[in-house]
Amino acid sequence: MADHVTGSGPGQAVDPEPFAVTMEMDRYLDRQVRDPRPRPAFSIRPRPGDDRRYVAARLDDMVTDTLRTSLALAYPYIAPGAIYDSVWTWDAYFTGLALPTRYLDHFVGSLRILLEAIRADGRAASLVEPDGTASYDHMGQPIHAQWALAAARLTGAGEWLTQYWPALVATRDWHRRECSGRHGLFRWTDESGSGIDNDPAMYGRLGGTVGLVDMNCFHVRELNSMAALADMLGEPGADQYRREAEQLRRAINAFMWDDRAGTYRHLDLSEHHRTTHQHITWEVPLQVGTWGCLFPLWTGVAEPALADRLITEHVLNPHKYLSGFGIRSMAADEPMYNNIAMADPSNWQGPVWGLSTFLTCYGLARYGYRHEAVRIATRLVNLMADDLKANDTIHESYDADTGAPLFNPGFISWNLLARRVLDDLDAGVDPTALD
What we know:
Helix content: 25-40%
InterPro entries: 6-hairpin_glycosidase_sf, 6hp_glycosidase-like_sf, Glycoside_hydrolase_63, MGH1-like_GH
Keywords: Glycosidase, Hydrolase, Isomerase
Structural class: mainly alpha
Distance between the termini: 53 Å
Organism: Kribbella rubisoli
CATH architecture: Alpha/alpha barrel
GO molecular function: Glc3Man9GlcNAc2 oligosaccharide glucosidase activity; isomerase activity
Number of helices: 13
Protein name: Isomerase
CATH topology: Glycosyltransferase
Number of domains: 1
Oligomer: single chain
């Protein structure tokens, strides 16, 4: 790559040429049955108020697009829609929390399918295909215990989970055995597949070397959920799970918080080599701001003073995460920030997603920024309304700078949270909360 020279003359600074973000779309499209390319862009209608009732009614009509059955699977399940028809771990979990309660059998069924796909060694599948094939190409997100806790509370019955307790314990033991890093933090074992698929802190890097903020926050929720389930089911270990959750919460705030930048950072947790007499007492942060760095807000892991800085300096900063259409999946001042349409990996390097926006809004409300949360959620709800009116569908993600649809028309999934998020925020409710 040629150097880009600014100015001329001896000693003039030489800057690298800005790199181009690319994706092999033709190769991706060759293997697809349904065209995932976006419908036409549409005009955005600035207006007072919100279109929550219109969006909720339209999404209610689309709910059935996520509900699936298969002769190869023992239970009904949830699929994201569009080109996706498998049981994807976090898609099914967050979609299920947004479904009307009359479809709880699909929420519970998806959980059962994934719990029964946990291997004997405790490794969880990332997805299960309609033909019953479980994929272990990537580790599944650590959400099984919090999902089980939600299912028990929503159905009003938890006894059926007793049969799955050994699987839940096994997957916790697998994470301890295979993913534990320094300070009790957890490492992501793969080079991609965390859900935030192309987070530069993880994508293409050697597996088992990175401590992701988002995944460690998921583990805090898992440990607290395991404690609650142990109490519910009369199983041992509740106090130990609570201690581990608190220790991990403290480690996230101690080691992943960057006080100079006012944000949490993913960490390089690769093994140390070739040291001599000095002991390494530090961790090296990965200097890239992605939506995963905001997870301490949604999960309640952040200390209040740290949350205030993260919110005021980053989340509500239009030069970073705040878009006119929701929350960016990467801070806009990062050098790799972009809004191109891509898949495999999905693009979380800038575009606005329903999940990143709505979970961040629940996190804002948790820390006392409810009015800001309502305004931000309204931006995306209204954008979806314009998409529905123009294209009769919604998309997987949207350009954070223009609002244009980017990929996969008909992607319902966690976008169903738009059915309820504004009413939730008005009422002080978070359907994803553990308590």
